[in-house]
Amino acid sequence: MSSVVSEVNVYFEVVKIIVQFVIGGLGAFGGYRAAVKKFSETTKDSDKNIFTISVTNERAAWRSELREKTAEFIELGYQFIEGSGKLSELGSVRSHIIMRLNPKAWKYSLQHSLDHKVLKAVNSIYVECERERLNINKLKSDIASLEKHVQNLLKHEWDKSKIEAIEGRERSA
Predict the structure, then answer these.
(1) How many alpha carbons fall within 13 Å on the CB side of residue 27?
(2) CA atoms within 13 A on the CB side of 60
(3) What sections of the sequence does the record tag as coiled-coil (predicted)?
(4) Averaged over 130-142, what is the pLDDT?
């Protein structure tokens, strides 16, 4: 009987070791899953942050380029008032501005109305400068309109960038 008790004790010891091993394994597995989940969430957050920073920086560069090219275009427009304007230079800067606008701006839509107004103002200035007899008052008025429309577009884009930075994602355009 003593050998039977001894065998039962050995059996219980083996079962205890196996149970401890299983419980330890389950704990390790649970810890591993939690670590993978945390890593995945951290990676998603990092990817989202990188994307947000990238979009925000691109928008900042776009605003800066539009601001600079608009100022150059206006300066070239005033050169026509002074009688020293060159249509080729005006046309080149006009193209740079147009390339920064949404291509859907060629047709008016509420969604792209700011781009459309800038496009119309740029084209109006160019057409006025093409004329043999320049209407100085119209050109000055068109230049003032361009300044106003570009300011509104830049402000709109700045507001979108602020929201994207706060929300951490790109809003639908």
Answers:
(1) 6
(2) 9
(3) 129-156
(4) 95
